[in-house]
Amino acid sequence: PIKQFKLTKDDVPGLLAALKSDNQFWRLHAQRLLVERGDKSVAPELAKMVAEAPVDPIGLSPAAIHALWTMQGLGLLEAGQAGGTGDANPTSAAAAALKHKTPGVRKAAVDVLPRTEAGLAALLSNKVLEDADPQVRKSALLALAEMPQQANPAAGEAVYAALAGPGVGDDRWLADAAMIAGARHDAGFLRAALTAFKVPEGSTEAPKSDATANLVRNGSFEEVAGGAPRGWRTRHYAGEAKQELSTTVARTGKNSVVLKSDKGADTSWYVDAAVEPNTNYKLSAWVKTENVTPVRGGRGAQLNVHGTEFRSPALTGTEDWRRIELAFNSGPQTRVSINCLFGGWGHATGTAYFDDVELTKGGVAVALPGATGKVLSAVITHYAQRSPKESVVPTLAALRTAQPQIATIVIDALSGSWPDGPDAAPQLTAADATELQAVMKALPPAGKDRLLALAGKWGRADLFGEALAAALKDLTARLDDPKATPGARGEAAKRLIAVADTPDAVAAVTKHVNANAGPDVQRELLSALAESRSPAVGEQLIANWLKLSPAAQKVALPMLLRREPWTRSLLAGVQAGTINPKDVLPQQWQALTTHPDPQIGNLAKTLQKSTGQAVSADRKAIVDKLQPVVEKAGDAKRGLAVYERNCQVCHQMGDKGGKVGPDLTGVGARPKSDLLIEVVDPNRSVEGTYRQWSAKTEDDVITGRLLSESQTSVEIIDAAGTVHALQRNQIKSLTASERSVMPEGFEAIPAEELADLLEFLSTSKAKH
Length: 768
Hints:
It holds the Pfam family CBM_4_9_1. Keywords: Heme, Iron, Metal-binding. This is CBM16. GO terms for molecular function: electron transfer activity; heme binding; metal ion binding. It comes from uncultured Phycisphaerae bacterium. The chain is of the alpha+beta class. The chain has 4 domains: about 10-195, Leucine-rich Repeat Variant (Alpha Horseshoe); about 225-360, Sandwich (Jelly Rolls), CATH 2.60.120.260; about 370-460, no CATH class; about 620-765, SH3 type barrels (Roll). The strands form 4 sheets. Strands 3, 4, 5, 6, 7, 8, 9 and 10 form an 8-stranded antiparallel β-sheet that branches. Strands 16-15-14-13-17 form a 5-stranded antiparallel β-sheet, with no helix packed on it. The chain has a two-stranded antiparallel ribbon with strand order 1-2. Helix 11 packs across helix 12 (about 370-385).
């Protein structure tokens, strides 16, 4: 039978005896009373219990665990506390418990260890990150994340060693804990990573040139065996799909592979390829899509390296042959599995054709594979965002001896995430400048312009005059090459803007954004221009507006709303008649007229009114005027086309559509009169979730719906469905409007089309 206790705060021997009970109720009761009593004279007895408590038949020592937590509750482990000598001292007892024979006690010792220099030293000296028990290792990593940062890199080195060791990379929670600890001790972690990928001393091996041989066998699917492309197989994850060989649709030759689904699927054609360890590769393919729609979290038609985070941009909708690509580093792998993927992290419907798949050496990898790559990328980004001026030069100096691929990954992340402005710039000494110039000489070509971009953020591009001139010449030549792929030209444009964000660089990019260039080229170059901060972008795009194709204008309009100087250029273009005011969508007019800058907002209101685009303020009168439309029977089939043209970009119905506005699944249950009000008077009743918000940073103005927020960041989804993640410390103002994210003005839809739209909405079979 279980021994019963009559516990009181005054019966100290009884409380200590109850801590050893084999019943958790009595142990917890005794622990609480000892802590509430607050008498620290029990420290020697508690320390002795930690050291001498027996281990029960199932390998636990609960008395030792409760003794540790009692010491922690009494504050005996805080700095300056005493209570005995040797093993009878609480702090010494807790440190000794890090080597206890039972994992539960070791974990408790880690959890109660004070988050001090002494606690950090105890964790490292006892090598707890190498503990055989994963729960102990996880607690140790999380404890390190709360320990003081040191100039000594030992903590960061220990975290990297744990990550690179056995067991951590295969465990999601251990990898996440390593990421948190690595971010806390980022400088030491990065130096350890660079040391791990160090070029061997005395190595005379010349840098390997980029090879152009395709490592994918039968990448054009012309070799066929048994009705399937030789060497390729299917890999199916979920849903219903057809995986076929097409002999009628191809970009080159006669064949391509097809993935299609009517109900939604996640599926692929795949091939395995041999690779060299720690080598950069570029994977590409040409894809043709027909009505590809992501559903249930899917992405569309894409490429990916199976079992890794490496994936290309995904294609959706209906597009003619378009090239997609991604770069990756093989890490320790000697073989990779290449997916022509349909769906991806969810499902997709429609049809996708893949042809001319290529895997070649070269490219600029953005990360290493697996858990090591994921954690390293996060730690570098965190390190750069906090702009550690005291350690950045030694960190960059370590790139001199690092393998080229890891050096490129690190400098790419540093240049991309380091904050702009003089406050984040280190004060460089003459010795620092000399060191950085040596780093520039040692970096591979792909890393040199990243270091130039970083120096530009510091206002010290003058350090690398010769390298800057060479980079500008090389990048401009790549940008101007009409034979280069759209992706390659877009990448050259982005790097050019990063290295020298000047009117001349903007002009070099903008001159290629015209109707003579293909739509993919224009899209890639506009994406590059969006990363600029130069007022010249708005000025030059408006000056060349009539040379842009309609598709390019549609991409450029929302882009010009992001930065105030560009927005002023946009309004100047409307005022001058260069931009047709009818091309500015209702949601864009709403963003302009409610702009955080009063001058921009007032000018937009004036232009909207003078160009006949202003909407009537009397919404009730408009609703009353359109009541006959409610009584009219429309054509639901034509209404679907009206819906897709005006509503689907923001609203989801069933598995299709955007997520800016409310989900319209089940809207057919409501009467037409209600639907008319929602369409033409969206501000009559605005649910808080769908109010319009405006976030203003140093450079950007983002308008849309507040999608999510945390203590450190917010996410806003704009009218185009793009999600913008903003750090709170970068936000100058965040304001909510009383207006809905859905703009007014849809009464401009012709009455017949409005009747068709209401008919479609009211007869929709998508019900809750």
